[in-house]
Amino acid sequence: MELFTGAEFGFLDGSGLDGIQAGTLALIVLVGFAAGWIDAVVGGGGLLQLPALLLVPGVSPVQALATNKLGSIFGTTTSAVTYYRRVHPDLRTAIPMALIALAGSFGGAVVATLLPPAVFKPIIVAALVAVAVFTAVKPTVGELTQLRHQGARHYVAAGTIGAIIGFYDGMIGPGTGSFLIIAMVIAMGYNFLDASAKAKLVNMATNLGSLVFFIPTGHVLWGLGLALGVANMLGGYTGARMAVTRGSKFIRIVFLIVVSVLILRLGYDVVVENF
């Protein structure tokens, strides 16, 4: 299999990598499309992208996380615009929530360079199991928007969700969109479609918040990130259109599938790292 040098395609850019195989590059582009589609519908695309980036020789976990954010921001921006044009989410809630999430994501990115993600994985797996069980046994949850809070309490709830999940996204990442959606469904009372539309705006901000830290510190692999970005845009546009067309029930089904895969993937990591 042909081996490309980083200088030809801009993938190495001072990263110290030896090269990238054509098959690995093709896999990353394919994964980028699939991740963009999943992120647009329910979130969780990082579950695919992060392991794919770690297949590239010499890529560190922090470089993979940073490069994943660069690719993802193209997809989340595309799906956010698509949702906005078709669903018209309430920006009075989404924009403040996104700004708080951006700040939280910056803080999480700083922590990502200091603490191993393995410290938090068991907690994340437990939370995902609880979310999956609740969604499965409550088939009507997320079908209709029935807001649980009014006035200031509504915005406090939105800001709290943005801060906590934004911090998580900057620090670890996988499943952020899923956590945002289920938090807005359960804690705030949105249906799955409305929650997905707002989650894309917030997720776009969390990706940006991470990049504000990762770009100046030199952790981003630009060639790989831009290749992922193009694939994410195509996947994000396709996924958002499908989600809007098929509605909340479709999103709920995909949500349960993605959360189940997240549980298996992160649960496997916890077992391997602790036993």
Automatic annotation (TrEMBL):
As for subcellular location, the record says:
Cell membrane
The main place the protein resides is membrane
> Transmembrane segments in this chain: where?
20-42, 94-116, 122-141, 177-193, 205-230, 250-268
Q: How does it sit in the membrane?
A: Multi-pass membrane protein
**InterPro entries with a match to the protein in the record:** TM_pro_TauE-like, TSUP
Source organism, top-level taxon? Bacteria
* Keyword Transmembrane helix in record: yes
* Keywords assigned: Cell membrane, Membrane, Transmembrane, Transmembrane helix, Transport
Q: Which Pfam families match?
A: TauE
| Family designation | Belongs to the 4-toluene sulfonate uptake permease (TSUP) (TC 2.A.102) family.
Q: What is the name of the protein in this document?
A: Probable membrane transporter protein
Which species is this record about?
Answer: Zhihengliuella alba
Organism ancestry = Bacteria, Bacillati, Actinomycetota, Actinomycetes, Micrococcales
